Amino acid sequence: MPASADRRLVILAEGNFNYHNGKTAMGVIRFGRDTVLAVIDSEQAGGNVQSWLGDNPRFAIPIVESLSEALGIEPRANGLMIGIAPTGGRLPDSWREVILAAIAAGLDVHSGLHSFLGDDPEFAAAAVAADASIVDYRRPPDRHETAVGRRHGAGKRVILTVGTDCAIGKMSVALELRRAAVEAGRSTAFVATGQTGMMIEGWGVAVDRVISDFVQGAVEELVAEGERRGDWVLVEGQGSLDHPAYSCVTLGLIHGATPHAMVLVHKPGLTAHEFSHLPERSFPLAPLPDFIRLHEQVAGLVAPSRVVALALNTSLIADEVQAREVIAAIGEETGLPCADPVRFGGDGLWRDIETAVDALPWVTPA
Amino acid sequence: MPASADRRLVILAEGNFNYHNGKTAMGVIRFGRDTVLAVIDSEQAGGNVQSWLGDNPRFAIPIVESLSEALGIEPRANGLMIGIAPTGGRLPDSWREVILAAIAAGLDVHSGLHSFLGDDPEFAAAAVAADASIVDYRRPPDRHETAVGRRHGAGKRVILTVGTDCAIGKMSVALELRRAAVEAGRSTAFVATGQTGMMIEGWGVAVDRVISDFVQGAVEELVAEGERRGDWVLVEGQGSLDHPAYSCVTLGLIHGATPHAMVLVHKPGLTAHEFSHLPERSFPLAPLPDFIRLHEQVAGLVAPSRVVALALNTSLIADEVQAREVIAAIGEETGLPCADPVRFGGDGLWRDIETAVDALPWVTPA
After folding, report:
1. What value of ipTM does the predicted structure carry?
2. How many beta-carbon pairs under 8 angstroms link A with B?
3. Closest CA in chain A for residue B253
4. Fold assignment, B8-136
5. pLDDT digits 0-9 by tens, B30-56
C-alpha cells in the first residue's frame, strides 16, 4: 500500500459529498495525511469543504465541477480517490468516464469499492498504458486462517470501538482517541478494519470483505500487528451488534480482537437503523444500558471485556449547550465517562479510558 | 448442482473416517440419497461402516484400501466425494494422486474444501480430458447483496439449529427433525448452510465461505428459498455463538435467518471447545441456562426468537440408560423439551417443537 505522505488527491464524491454517503471522503480529509486538492461534486461546485468541517485551514479545499477543473490546480494531483460507494455496487457510467480520464492523465486510482477496479479489463489496460496504479483497499489478504485463540502481549491494552449503528463515527472516535493518546505520550497503534481507515493509515484489512470463516483469524492477526506497533492498540469497529445486515462482521471483530475494553459510539437522536431497503420495517436501536451489558456478555463468551466509556456523536444537535446537556444526561443514565471527542476534543475522555483500562483485572502488566 | 439420485459414490476419507474429521463422510452416508459403494480409508480396510453407524442395512458399506479396490465394485461408481478436510487447507500429495486417478477413471469429483479443486489447473485439465465434472460445494454464489430485513411469509415457521460448539450435530439434528416433520405430514424444507448439507440436499450455500458483508444477505435469501419449498423451514446452523473462531458465521445465521425459534444442540460431557491450536488456552462452554437466554437476547436484537428445545448429542455416553438420565436431568435444568433425536428418534421432540412454535406470538398465521 502506498505511503500517503506524497499523495496529492482529488476526491470523487459526485452528488454525494455529505456525512453519510461521503464518509470515506470526509474521513480521508479529516484524518488522512494526504494533501487533498479538491473534491468533485458538481452539485456543490463553487463551495468549500470548510462549510462541512469547520474553519480549520486544513479544510480550505474547493469543491469543483469536474476532473478537468481539479487538474488545473497546482501542484498537480497524482491520485484520484473514490470517495463514495455506488448504490447496488455497480459503477455508474459517468464515473467510468471520470476514472478513465484520471488514469489517462497519469493519476493513480484509490478505491474502497467491493468491486475491484484493478480487475476491470478496461481500467487495468488504461493503467498499464498510462503507467498509473490502481489500489483496491478492500482486496482481502491471501492469508486464509481461522483464529487460533491468541493471547495479548504483556503490557498491551486493546480497545475496540463498537457502536449502536453503522456510519456513526466508530473510526473517527478511534482516530481521535489515538491522537489524544499520542499527545499524552503513549505508545499507540490504530488498527484499520475498513477501507477508509486503511486509506488514512496505510495498512489494515477491510474485514467486511474477508471470507466469514476467516474474519476472526484476520482480526486476531491485525491486533497482533497492532501490538507490534504500539502498547495502546485502538481497533476501529464496524457495524453494530444489532444490525440486521452487518452484525456478523461486528461480532467477528469483538471475538477476533478480544479487546480488554470497548468504547461504545452512539449518535443521540438516532432511534432506528438507517436501513432503507424495506422502509415498512423499523429496526429500533437497543436501549443503551441493556446494550452495554449485552456487549460485555457477548464479548465475555470468549474473553472478558468492559465498556469503559461512551463516545457520542452529537452532530444531530446543532446547539453546543444542548449537546453538552445530552452528553451529561447519557453519562448519568449509563454511569460511564461520556463525551463527544470529535466535536469537543478527546483528551479528557482518553484520560478516563486510560484510568479505567488500567484498573481492569484482565490487563496484564508489562 | 447435480441431483443425487443417480450418484454412486466412493468416499475418500483416508486416515480420518471418524465422527470428527470425517463428519462430511458420515453425514452423506447417514442422510444423503446417494448410493455409497465404498469408503476409502486404508487404516480401516476390511471394515464396514456398520461398525460406526449401526446395523441398518443402508450402512453395509465396505471400507476399502484404495480407489482401485473401490472401482472393482459393481455397479461401478460414477463419483468420488472428498469426505474430509486436510489440516492447513492444502491437499496432501497422496490425495492428489487418488483424485487424478478417479478423474481419469471418469468419476465426477465432489468436494467441500475451501480450496476449489475445479480451479486447480491439473485437476481441471484432467476433468476436461476425461469428460468428468468437478463440483466445489463451497464455491460462493455470485450474488453479493447485504440483508434487506425481509419478513417471513404468512404461515411460515423458521427454525434454526444453534449449538454449544461446532461439529456436534447441528446439521444431523435439523435433518432428523425434518424427517420427523415429513412423517408427521408437514410441508417442510431443509436449508443447507454448509458443504455437507449441500451434498445431501442438492442446494444451499456454504455460508462460511461467503464474504462477511454478505453473509446475512445470503442467509436471508436462502430462507426465502426455503419458504418457497415448504412451510416448516429447518435451517442448519454453523459454529457457536461463543466460538473464538467461528462465532461471526453463527451470528450471521441468527440475524440473517431471523428464526421464529431455535433448537440448541449440545453434547453432554463436552466442557470446552475442541480448539487445539493453542492447547494452553481453554475456552470452556457457557452454562446452558445462561447460554439459552443469551441466544434469545442476541437474536432478539433483530427479531424475537425463542429456544424451544434442546437436542442432545449423547454419543459420549455409551450406556443408553445413563444417556436417558442425562437427557432428563438437562430437561429439568433448562425447563425445555429435551431429547437425543439422532440416537433415539426425533418424533417426540418434533411434536414438542411444533406445539411450542405454534404458540409463539410472532408466528403469523397462513
Report:
1. 0.94
2. 141
3. A248
4. Rossmann fold (3.40.50)
5. 999 899 999 999 999 999 999 999 999
